[in-house]
Write a structure and sequence with these properties.
Blueprint lengths: L7 H11 L3 E3 L2 H6 L13 E4 L3 H13 L5 E4 L14 E4 L7 E5 L4 E4 L5 H8 L4
Parallel strand pairs: 2-4, 3-4
Antiparallel strand pairs: 1-2, 5-6
Helix pairs in contact: 1-3
The protein binds flavin-adenine dinucleotide.
Flavin-adenine dinucleotide (FAD) binds next to strand 3.
Length: about 130
């Protein structure tokens, strides 16, 4: 299900009231999220850059209440199948949710937030081998 243009102001203000992160329904933000690395094009209702997991949960709750607005998670947007585009809300996980939570060289594990760029993880892990 898509989101009608006339519903966008209500959706945007409900999101602004619910999240601490950035809600951007401007023409520029929508245009930037229209494509990924594929040939597909979908104009989203708007974008949200959540601050944390609570923000992600709040977005899902608001979108569920607004006629089951679709939500798409987006990282670098390098999907070559159009999966990082959608007609509802695009979650930009790179702006505030790209950190490393913990690195354990002994166990050779890392806990990262969902927008982390792989090179940053490699740089952080390199000194410990
Ligand atoms: C030139 C090129 C070569 C490639 N070669 C390979 C290859 O050799 N091997 C390979 O495996 N892949 C390859 N890919 C695919 C690409 O690496 C993957 O699409 C990439 O890992 C997606 O990561 P992203 O952060 O850019 O996600 P996006 O492109 O932003 O999203 C991809 C999908 O994951 C979802 N998503 C994004 N973030 C999250 C999240 N935090 N939680 C839940 N869902 C999320 C999106 O909704 C979408 O469905 C290639 C892509 C390109 C452009």
């Amino acid at each position: 299900m898509g989101t009608h243009e006339e519903d966008l102001p209500g959706l945007a203000s409900a999101l602004r009231a619910a999240v601490r992160g950035d809600v951007d329904f401007s023409a520029t933000a929508r245009a930037l999220a229209t494509m990924d690395a594929s040939n597909y094009r979908r104009v989203p209702a708007g974008t949200v850059a959540p601050r944390d997991a609570d923000d992600v949960a709040a977005v899902l709750e608001v979108c569920r209440a607004h006629g089951t607005t679709p939500v798409v998670a987006r990282g670098a947007g390098t999907s070559i199948g159009g999966q990082a585009t959608g007609t509802g809300v695009v979650l930009d996980l790179t702006r505030h949710m790209g950190g490393i939570v913990s690195l354990d060289p002994e166990a050779r594990t890392a806990v990262v937030r969902p927008g982390l760029v792989l090179d940053r993880l490699r740089d952080a892990a390199r000194p410990t081998g």
